[in-house]
Amino acid sequence: SLRMSSNIHANHLSLDASSSSSSSSSSSSSSSSSSSVHEPKMDALIIPVTMEVPCDSRGQRMWWAFLASSMVTFFGGLFIILLWRTLKYLWTVCCHCGGKTKEAQKINNGSSQADGTLKPVDEKEEAVAAEVGWMTSVKDWAGVMISAQTLTGRVLVVLVFALSIGALVIYFIDSSNPIESCQNFYKDFTLQIDMAFNVFFLLYFGLRFIAANDKLWFWLEVNSVVDFFTVPPVFVSVYLNRSWLGLRFLRALRLIQFSEILQFLNILKTSNSIKLVNLLSIFISTWLTAAGFIHLVENSGDPWENFQNNQALTYWECVYLLMVTMSTVGYGDVYAKTTLGRLFMVFFILGGLAMFASYVPEIIELIGNRKKYGGSYSAVSGRKHIVVCGHITLESVSNFLKDFLHKDRDDVNVEIVFLHNISPNLELEALFKRHFTQVEFYQGSVLNPHDLARVKIESADACLILANKYCADPDAEDASNIMRVISIKNYHPKIRIITQMLQYHNKAHLLNIPSWNWKEGDDAICLAELKLGFIAQSCLAQGLSTMLANLFSMRSFIKIEEDTWQKYYLEGVSNEMYTEYLSSAFVGLSFPTVCELCFVKLKLLMIAIEYKSANRESRSRKRILINPGNHLKIQEGTLGFFIASDAKEVKRAFFYCKACHDDITDPKRIKKCGCKRLIYSKMSIYKRMRRACCFDCGRSERDCSCMSGRVRGNVDTLERAFPLSSVSVNDCSTSFRAFEDEQPSTLSPKKKQRNGGMRNSPNSSPKLMRHDPLLIPGNDQIDNMDSNVKKYDSTGMFHWCAPKEIEKVILTRSEAAMTVLSGHVVVCIFGDVSSALIGLRNLVMPLRASNFHYHELKHIVFVGSIEYLKREWETLHNFPKVSILPGTPLSRADLRAVNINLCDMCVILSANQNNIDDTSLQDKECILASLNIKSMQFDDSIGVLQANSQGFTPPGMDRSSPDNSPVHGMLRQPSITTGVNIPIITELVNDTNVQFLDQDDDDDPDTELYLTQPFACGTAFAVSVLDSLMSATYFNDNILTLIRTLVTGGATPELEALIAEENALRGGYSTPQTLANRDRCRVAQLALLDGPFADLGDGGCYGDLFCKALKTYNMLCFGIYRLRDAHLSTPSQCTKRYVITNPPYEFELVPTDLIFCLMQFDHNAGQSRASLSHSSHSSQSSSKKSSSVHSIPSTANRQNRPKSRESRDKQKKEMVYR
């Protein structure tokens, strides 16, 4: 039998006959007699040849050979390393002793030693240095190869890990076979692959060994131990043609490096993800390795039991056993039978239970803490998206979505992506789910470029940044938003950004960002600027703040059947501001003509246009002109600004066609017609201009005698070259004059003749009738100006004076009481030395606009803490007619000293609102001041003053003026005996606090702000109404420009750049260019109680008033300020008024109505008072009291006052304003 076994080993003929090369010579010399004696016993131990037993017919196992190869490699290498270290240590000690002897010899020999004797030593040292350098370079190369510092190294590291996982998979496959079996290397494919893997591992082990600094510690590393017990057995199995699973399960320990591999590939970047992968890899590798050991010992049995106590367990059953053991569940269905297995389980429970108890909860916590909103946005083809970031709360998001997704807009095909670093609460999450079709939320920060990439900021249509309006430190909030802008612009400079800013002076920092470009749509909505600008406009026309706030807010129409003030107010609330390009049918017509046509025929109110200047050298060729007057002609492709209730209604201005829609009375039928439209070209402009009327002689331009011969010849030439069809050619007298005849004028022929055929403004001389509003004013105005005195700022937009010290404008209580203040503005300000600045310059600038004459400026008196006002004074010292009364707005003595009962408006502001956490108490100071004023009682001051002084009469109370004087059209302020009738506007932070302002209203605390009576009456204003400007600016950036032009008094980008440079207005000499900037319209209120419109006040139609004011005075009416109880049949003592926006044509007027209008600048109104205004202008810096503060005159002066008043009245035109 031994011979047969050797033959089989030599020829490799059979799988059952294995090569028993381990049979020794001593066993082959056994006697045959001894074999025959034990033959019966050996026959009983013979195991049948099957796939589950070793290939040796006698049942001999070779596992010890595989294990011995690993142990010999490990301990042999360890012995060699220790031996090398010992020898090296001994050599070092010996060399150290020899070195001391040589050194002593050198000292003894000294200089007697020649240079030639030292030369061999030097050569030897150089050879050693060269050898060390070569070894070092090889070591460094090996270190670079395994450290993943280069691309080759990273590929090698990843490849080793991938092959280790492959070897582990092969182990999983082979674990279904017996622990030890015979396999032919040339026929077994998995063995060949495993052999190739281990050859690669051997080479990688050599690289690691060369690169290791400490060979001993390298030999004891986990990865080295894995190689010792997995690589040598493979070579043994090839030699013996026998496979043993053995310790191949140790390859599972390579999983510990999984996180390092993912970091090399830049897949793991965050600390949480790295920690999670580390915990998972350690837990799984330990679990699989322990299962492999149990699988080995349970399927093999105990060696001292001759492997008879084994049990058949699959590898995955062992994995299950280890899991229930670690979790201390232990069902008992699978358990260890061998002694080795049970002993291992005892120690594994100690470590496995600790690992399970610590790792699993931490893994679950890390997985649970993963960002729910941590994905990436997937852009939808054909659909734009915007990114909204900043202050993301339930209130800010709900207000934004309510306005952005309003049904009155056209179909909003925009997806809103919110990005915030804090996950939303349940209420906000529910809000997102209700709008899930158009809203997505992602958790992250715009300061992180990775998060910007997640939300696809580079493909976004715009990025909107919301600010926290209620923060305690506005400058810090603005700084945060500026940093957000910098981060976004740094990532994608071309992105359009619309951001909210709290403080006006912080807007200057945005100009420092190189990629910030307002011409490309970047906008900063300064809440302080607009809020105080709205309040300032209410000082000029009370209730205007409410009307403007409602215009850019999207409100749904609420129909009320009862005849109450809410019915008319809500009808106006449903109007919004829209833009649309004008039809070519309007080309060549003047602005008032187009405005009248739109209001009468299209039921639209056009208030402004975007004018393209013909001057190509102008810095801004496009300008928004509000009610520019009849000197301006509509150009082709002009953009109009309309007030309407729906975006579809505004389309009528674009679809209107003279030929198709001239006879249509129902504006809803005005839709896109089928006729051929004129091409936007110079030829079409000439055609349209030829059809237009000459506004000087009233004839067509062909028959016009005013037109020069050369121009008329050009028109005739064009007509011959391009004959017009019958549809496009209409006689001027039968086309546009027919429209004018539909609305007969209520003025007498004399007035028509005096007003230039109801086209020229009475305030404009013929010299100022120009066809380009950017031209210089007339010479008569320039001659009256002293070029040596700076009266306006360098842009000509605001009145200016030399800087004044604050001590020169401070009034004591006694000085203020002795001075008769009337028609002024009282600003009650709460603040102290630690309060945040609110920017009072934004309140004063609209009241000092240059389109007011100097004598028309309302005096401004600040009542508040002098410490706070000193901090604001640096931005106020260049404005004239400003005084300060140190005190408190809660002091009635201070309020009486400034004649609060004679003021045109009392403004109540607070700089301490955001310092209080309780929202209900944020407005306590403003509410207390408002109620304090309303409870005050006054004497009949106006009657007493009139009886004692003929020289002083408050504005609007001149009894001696004729009926046609504009004074009769001014709002006459009645005698105020109670504080309830004082015009007040109060700033609020919390909308719900509006219920405390009026004690006699029945507003529900849950009522929205715009539905409350104080807001409808214009006596309350909250900064929350400005939230709608974000979405309004996104859909149309011209809306913000128009609103800013209306409320700021004419702030321009050039002026903002100047303020950003110097933080103050710079005075400038009057030039034709700067004086031309004064010619812009302003908001006023028209009284119907008397004056030229008194006949329409009693039962007249609003449409008739609209057309008459537009034709006669170029005044554009756009709303009514009506008494609250005007609809009642019984007279009421209530003086509260409410706002009606854009009433219909047939709306009936009452005599007590005040009409909101846009009036033209009156060039001649200031000439009669030129000497007064100039002298007061120059003396403002040295006088403590302003010249507009009316003092009771002496007896000598009283006789001259009536005469001067009559001369002033003669020079006034029939202009009605407040």
TrEMBL record:
<feature type="transmembrane region" description="Helical">
    <location>
        <begin position="193"/>
        <end position="211"/>
    </location>
</feature>
<dbReference type="GO" id="GO:0045211">
    <property type="term" value="C:postsynaptic membrane"/>
</dbReference>
<feature type="region of interest" description="Disordered">
    <location>
        <begin position="1169"/>
        <end position="1218"/>
    </location>
</feature>
<dbReference type="InterPro" id="IPR048735">
    <property type="entry name" value="Slowpoke-like_C"/>
</dbReference>
<feature type="transmembrane region" description="Helical">
    <location>
        <begin position="343"/>
        <end position="361"/>
    </location>
</feature>
<feature type="compositionally biased region" description="Low complexity">
    <location>
        <begin position="1169"/>
        <end position="1194"/>
    </location>
</feature>
<dbReference type="Pfam" id="PF00520">
    <property type="entry name" value="Ion_trans"/>
</dbReference>
<feature type="region of interest" description="Disordered">
    <location>
        <begin position="740"/>
        <end position="770"/>
    </location>
</feature>
<keyword id="KW-0460">Magnesium</keyword>
<protein>
    <recommendedName>
        <fullName>Calcium-activated potassium channel subunit alpha-1</fullName>
    </recommendedName>
</protein>
<feature type="compositionally biased region" description="Basic and acidic residues">
    <location>
        <begin position="1203"/>
        <end position="1218"/>
    </location>
</feature>
<dbReference type="InterPro" id="IPR005821">
    <property type="entry name" value="Ion_trans_dom"/>
</dbReference>
<keyword id="KW-0631">Potassium channel</keyword>
<dbReference type="Pfam" id="PF21014">
    <property type="entry name" value="Slowpoke_C"/>
</dbReference>
<dbReference type="GO" id="GO:0060072">
    <property type="term" value="F:large conductance calcium-activated potassium channel activity"/>
</dbReference>
<feature type="transmembrane region" description="Helical">
    <location>
        <begin position="276"/>
        <end position="297"/>
    </location>
</feature>
<keyword id="KW-0106">Calcium</keyword>
<dbReference type="GO" id="GO:0005249">
    <property type="term" value="F:voltage-gated potassium channel activity"/>
</dbReference>
<keyword id="KW-0407">Ion channel</keyword>
<keyword id="KW-0406">Ion transport</keyword>
<dbReference type="GO" id="GO:0034702">
    <property type="term" value="C:monoatomic ion channel complex"/>
</dbReference>
<feature type="transmembrane region" description="Helical">
    <location>
        <begin position="155"/>
        <end position="173"/>
    </location>
</feature>
<dbReference type="Pfam" id="PF03493">
    <property type="entry name" value="BK_channel_a"/>
</dbReference>
<feature type="domain" description="RCK N-terminal">
    <location>
        <begin position="383"/>
        <end position="525"/>
    </location>
</feature>
<keyword id="KW-0630">Potassium</keyword>
<comment type="similarity">
    <text>Belongs to the potassium channel family. Calcium-activated (TC 1.A.1.3) subfamily. KCa1.1/KCNMA1 sub-subfamily.</text>
</comment>
<feature type="compositionally biased region" description="Low complexity">
    <location>
        <begin position="18"/>
        <end position="36"/>
    </location>
</feature>
<feature type="transmembrane region" description="Helical">
    <location>
        <begin position="62"/>
        <end position="84"/>
    </location>
</feature>
<feature type="domain" description="RCK N-terminal">
    <location>
        <begin position="822"/>
        <end position="966"/>
    </location>
</feature>
<keyword id="KW-0472">Membrane</keyword>
<keyword id="KW-1133">Transmembrane helix</keyword>
<feature type="region of interest" description="Disordered">
    <location>
        <begin position="14"/>
        <end position="39"/>
    </location>
</feature>
<dbReference type="GO" id="GO:0046872">
    <property type="term" value="F:metal ion binding"/>
</dbReference>
<keyword id="KW-0812">Transmembrane</keyword>
<feature type="transmembrane region" description="Helical">
    <location>
        <begin position="312"/>
        <end position="331"/>
    </location>
</feature>
<keyword id="KW-0633">Potassium transport</keyword>
<keyword id="KW-0813">Transport</keyword>
<dbReference type="InterPro" id="IPR036291">
    <property type="entry name" value="NAD(P)-bd_dom_sf"/>
</dbReference>
<dbReference type="InterPro" id="IPR003929">
    <property type="entry name" value="K_chnl_BK_asu"/>
</dbReference>
<dbReference type="InterPro" id="IPR047871">
    <property type="entry name" value="K_chnl_Slo-like"/>
</dbReference>
<keyword id="KW-1003">Cell membrane</keyword>
<keyword id="KW-0851">Voltage-gated channel</keyword>
